[in-house]
Amino acid sequence: MTMDPIAKELSVGEGEAARPIAALVRATTETGRGLPGVVWLGGYRSDMTGSKAVALCDKAGDEGRAALRFDYSGHGASGGEFREGTISRWLEESLAAFDAFTSGPQILVGSSMGGWIALRLVQELRKRGQGERIAGLVLIAPAPDFTLELMEPELTAAQREALERDGYFEEPTPYGPDPNVFTRALFEDGRKNRVLDGLIETGAPVHIIQGMADPDVPWQHALKLMEHLPSENVTLTLIRDGDHRLSRDEDIARILAAVDSIPGNT
Q1: For residue range 95-143, what is the model confidence (pLDDT) as tens digits?
Q2: What Rg do the C-alpha atoms of the chain give, in angstroms?
Q3: Residue range 175-179: average pLDDT?
Q4: What totals of helices (H) and strands (E) does the chain contain, helices first?
Q5: pTM of the predicted model, to two decimals?
Q6: How many CB atoms sit inside 10 A of residue 231's CB?
Q7: Which DSSP state fits 14?
Q8: Are residues 136 and 258 in contact, defined by beta-carbon separation less than 8 angstroms?
Q9: Residue 33, SS3?
Q10: Are 33 and 91 in contact (CB under 8 A)?
């Protein structure tokens, strides 16, 4: 019988910038010893209770492997204001959670914006000389550099004006009742965290899963990402009728199979 994940909390930042980050942590059991752990990195305005995150954690529990999922500040059960969020801020929290709650090799599973954060997380770990901590990456509808590459070219005159005047704009989303909020700080910070401006050295296998019917991240963006990854150890799975969420049973099965395909899982 697998144990339930343990709720943890971590404070990130100093002074007024401090915010509590909520996490759910599974420890490795005897049967899972030697298997790399799994770290879930969610998307913009998603949280750790989503179906993909839960399925990933449940499978890790069945296999006795470690698993970590957490909410960025302004998301889900974590504190902090969503409108203060930037890629740098959420990356800082991801690094802090990785340091606090994982040990040994890990597979990063990043969804949408989480794919961008996963790539930046690898870069930061490699700067520290800890690249060996990453056993592999599974990127689901990854959206690296989405502010610059996907959003800025499509901004309307009214949205640009709102960014300059108010510092943010809102737009409706099919994924919930509240509108999405995009801030000037998010766009400016996104430029500082670009990854599609050179070779992305991961030092680990990468498996990208992308829907071709994704209305938010075009499948061509996954092809562009592949151009920036070393040619060996990169796999791309295109799902012809797949949407952005990729949360159907068959989509989740592909995600779990991709995790299992990372070397070191057997």
Answers
A1: 999 999 999 999 999 999 999 999 999 999 999 999 999 999 999 999 9
A2: 18
A3: 80
A4: 8, 10
A5: 0.95
A6: 7
A7: S
A8: no
A9: coil
A10: no
